[in-house]
Amino acid sequence: MRVLLFTVGSEGDVRPFVALAARLRAEGHDPVLAAPALYQGIATAAGLAFEPLDLDMTEVGGAVAGRHGLRHLLAFAQAMGRRAGRALPGAAAAAARGPADLVVHHPVVPIGQHLAEMLGVPAVVAALAPALVPTRQFPSMAWPGASRLPPALNRPSYRAARYLTGAWCRRDIDAWRQAALGLGRRPGRHDPLGDPSVTVLHAFSPQVVTRPADWPATAHITGYWFTGTEPAWSPPRRLAGFLEAGDPPVYLGFGSMPVDSPAALAGAVTMTARQTGARFIVHSHNPELTRRLAGHGDQILTVRHVPHAWLFPQTAAVVHHGGAGTAAAAAAAGRPQVIWPFGVDQHFWASRMTSLGVAVPARPVRALTGTRLAAAVAQALGDRRVGDRAQDLAARIQAEDGVGEAVAHLERLGRGTAVAVGG
Question: Could you tell me the pTM of the whole model?
């Protein structure tokens, strides 16, 4: 079975697709992954056929810098819209590799549904968060402050979220359908779930989000899709030495989110280290932040890329932005979490982890100060109940085989058989 997979976003959006493609390959199938060129190394390390999409998410990150809440969401959609056309040639190249049986795509990449239409095969949405399938149980996590919506607006919130999902690339895709795919234009019809028979695989744990009873039979929760650590990866000497030199450190990293004030964040970290006595490993791709923390080598180490699956089990707690991939890795590692969300789905994951008792209450990142960070880290390290709940959740997550469950659904769909209600 040949499967085309399409995703965009940060590393947390790409790694689950790498995990799925690698498992498909291990099961004897023929996957082709199309993703931002920045992540080709991850795909190559997994032995995958890869087509680069010319969509640099660091540019998108820069466009949303300093924006939070609804302004963050709208700036993201606008930034993606200005860059949508760049992804289309890579998507066409992936489709040109040969006949396909299935197309699996990130919901923010409705390119997949149009390629599936051209190829005459099913399209499957691979969702990392419950943003698009309506339910009365909770609102779409795509909306900042969604948890404050009246319950009557829960289901309607999904309609608006799905509209925005296609809004950023509607014009480019309408032209591309006709010019490159030989399909008729479909003005305004870019909802990835426009067809109610479309299968949606949610790549998170049912231990974290329970499957809503009013979801359609085509919507499933499989469990997380983890890649693990690349076999060829080994820690730099400085990192290995830092880990061996003292107690397990606290990890702090905000993924690809832009740091509005490196000076303020550096000050908050150094204050927290001083007040709590905790050592820190800080993920930084900001030169100023790295420079400001460089003088605290015995207590604070800055790093760039370190696989979460390798590092998090060796930490005492994980401070992060609430990205789906980081929250999943921290939960699977059984570590207490401190979450400072920037926008979109990050507020949802912060709320879920706090509700499960594995994260201490935190405020949006714009409210982060040294005093608040120190208090939150002290609570995460000192409250034994948080640590015990984190360990219990990790054991239940580790017992799942989310990527195997996803492959089983795809195999049944590829054979043309009905897919039973899952999750």
Answer: 0.89
